[in-house]
From TrEMBL:
<dbReference type="InterPro" id="IPR036388">
    <property type="entry name" value="WH-like_DNA-bd_sf"/>
</dbReference>
<dbReference type="Pfam" id="PF00486">
    <property type="entry name" value="Trans_reg_C"/>
</dbReference>
<dbReference type="GO" id="GO:0032993">
    <property type="term" value="C:protein-DNA complex"/>
</dbReference>
<dbReference type="GO" id="GO:0005829">
    <property type="term" value="C:cytosol"/>
</dbReference>
<dbReference type="InterPro" id="IPR039420">
    <property type="entry name" value="WalR-like"/>
</dbReference>
<keyword id="KW-0597">Phosphoprotein</keyword>
<keyword id="KW-0238">DNA-binding</keyword>
<dbReference type="GO" id="GO:0000156">
    <property type="term" value="F:phosphorelay response regulator activity"/>
</dbReference>
<dbReference type="InterPro" id="IPR001789">
    <property type="entry name" value="Sig_transdc_resp-reg_receiver"/>
</dbReference>
<dbReference type="GO" id="GO:0006355">
    <property type="term" value="P:regulation of DNA-templated transcription"/>
</dbReference>
<feature type="DNA-binding region" description="OmpR/PhoB-type">
    <location>
        <begin position="124"/>
        <end position="219"/>
    </location>
</feature>
<feature type="domain" description="OmpR/PhoB-type">
    <location>
        <begin position="124"/>
        <end position="219"/>
    </location>
</feature>
<dbReference type="GO" id="GO:0000976">
    <property type="term" value="F:transcription cis-regulatory region binding"/>
</dbReference>
<protein>
    <submittedName>
        <fullName>Two component transcriptional regulator, winged helix family</fullName>
    </submittedName>
</protein>
<dbReference type="Pfam" id="PF00072">
    <property type="entry name" value="Response_reg"/>
</dbReference>
<feature type="modified residue" description="4-aspartylphosphate">
    <location>
        <position position="51"/>
    </location>
</feature>
<dbReference type="InterPro" id="IPR001867">
    <property type="entry name" value="OmpR/PhoB-type_DNA-bd"/>
</dbReference>
Length: 221
């Protein structure tokens, strides 16, 4: 899952991003509306966390731009404005959810995951293949009844591969979906994470490598 945090208070934006990354999400950050618009123009996001009071380009206008785009992300407005009128205005702009500041971070995580699940291209909540059952909302992964102890990145890589199946994902695409815009495209972190994930999944193998293409969940016979 890839998320864009748009918040002009740098410390708050960075704290939100770090917290979401700890939950296995790929997170980019913009501190103003113009930078956010530029990132939205070149990257595909599942969810945008959007402050309404932004420099450069205000959140309301940015929200309209997102909603009017060809493949709109889900929008969660984060704002200090907490009256019923403010919530109605935010939702009337096309936002999918509205969370006033200050907020409880676990609730924010649940709302982000719920919004990603509601995207028109989203798949069923529990993803299944090869004896694996992965529930992104509850953040649980099971294989043949055995609970898998996965790191945040291992979980996110498995989720990305399950969502893409039967198609493969290249290492570059996994970097884009699971890490963030600062990931080194020449790093071996994807192959290392895949290796750890394979060991934890056990036999028979669930993930295969397609030379020159990437990785995919092994199709069922």
């Amino acid at each position: 899952m890839r998320v864009l945090v748009v918040e002009d208070v740098h410390r708050l934006a960075d704290d939100i991003a770090e917290g979401l990354r700890d939950h296995g999400m790929a997170v980019d950050v913009s501190y103003d509306g113009l930078d956010a618009a530029a990132k939205l123009d070149v990257n595909r996001y599942d969810v945008v966390l959007l402050d309404r009071d932004l420099p450069g380009l205000n959140g309301d206008m940015l929200c309209r731009m997102i909603i009017d785009s060809e493949d709109p992300a889900m929008v969660l407005m984060l704002t200090a404005a907490d009256t019923s009128a403010d919530r109605v205005t935010g939702l009337s702009l096309g936002a999918d959810d509205y969370l006033p500041k200050p907020f409880h971070f676990p609730e924010l995580v649940l709302r982000v995951r719920a919004l990603a699940r509601r995207r028109p291209t989203a798949q069923p909540r529990v993803l299944k293949a090869g004896g694996v059952e992965l529930d992104p909302l509850r953040h649980t992964a099971i294989r043949d009844g055995r609970r898998l102890d996965l790191s945040a990145k291992e979980f996110a890589v498995l989720e990305a591969l399950l969502r893409a199946m039967p198609a493969p994902l290249s290492a570059e695409r996994l970097l884009e979906q699971v890490w963030d815009e600062y990931a080194d495209p020449f790093t071996k972190t994807v192959s290392v994470t895949i290796g750890r994930l394979r060991r934890k999944l056990g036999d028979p193998p669930v993930i295969e490598t397609l030379a020159g293409v990437g990785y995919r969940i092994i199709p069922a016979d």
